[in-house]
């Protein structure tokens, strides 16, 4: 019975998603276009012309989704240009979309504190390639170690940064100009501090993966959106 219930719920979820995708942009009176910047049970936070609103959502959306909103309810979703997925923790045979419509993935790593994990970098690169996202490797905490020879073999763009000294921040900001990016990486590599440096604001709570939900900026696990 439980399997049958799961199948019915999944079928209903897919029907709602297909119906929403059939009408992706605002066409009715009072309907507006919006960008999803945060999600929760039955609700999502959206940016509508620079104003953040919390609306009802009966269809599965993720941060980065471009949607239409009518009467404080998500009524449509545009086709996703790019996606970032990970294995569903409930069903290992299914991929779960966690971020949509991002242009670049900034893979944040450190040579030390925490130690470099090249295997994790490789997995992020594969995820970016599968989702149509351009990867950029950001070696942070350069003030702790300047020897980056361990990543010299990577062919993707590499930016060497230090949020303590400011080195490389302007270069990374220039590379991300005009795009929506997702910052990802192992816990402790400095994603929140890097976000603060990029935006020149103290919006992220340093030491936490949660970032205040502000226009085009949200987090989901180890992922942070920036634009």
Which structural traits does this protein have?
single chain, 227 residues, alpha+beta, SH3 type barrels, Rossmann fold, 2 domains, six-stranded mixed sheet, five-stranded antiparallel sheet, 31% strand, globular
Task: Give a brief outline of the structure.
The chain is built from 4 helices and 13 strands. A 6-stranded mixed beta sheet has the order 10-9-8-11-13-12, with helices on both faces. A 5-stranded antiparallel beta sheet has the order 3-2-1-4-5. The chain has helices spanning 2-21, 118-131, 169-176, 191-199, and strands at 32-40, 43-48, 51-56, 66-70, 73-77, 83-87, 95-100, 104-110, 134-140, 158-160, 181-185, 219-220, 223-226.
Q: Would you give an account of this structure?
A:
The protein has 227 residues and is α+β, with helices and mostly antiparallel strands. It folds into two domains: 2-77, SH3 type barrels (Roll); 83-90 and 97-226, Rossmann fold. 22% of the residues lie in helices and 31% in strands. The chain contains four helices and 13 strands. The radius of gyration is 19 Å and the shape is globular.
SSE sequence, one letter per element: HEEEEEEEEHEEHEHEE
Number of strands: 13
- The share of residues in extended strands comes to 25-35%
CATH class of the largest domain: Alpha Beta
Largest sheet: 6 strands, mixed
What is the number of domains?
2
Count of DSSP-assigned helices: 4
How far the N terminus sits from the C terminus, by CA atoms, comes to: 45 Å
Radius of gyration: 19 Å
Strands across the major sheet, in which order? 10-9-8-11-13-12
* CATH topology group of the largest domain: Rossmann fold
Mean pLDDT: 81
Class derived from helix and strand content = alpha+beta
- Molecular shape: globular
The helicity comes to 10-25%
CATH architecture of the largest domain: 3-Layer(aba) Sandwich
Poorly predicted ranges: 202-222
CATH superfamily of the largest domain: P-loop containing nucleotide triphosphate hydrolases
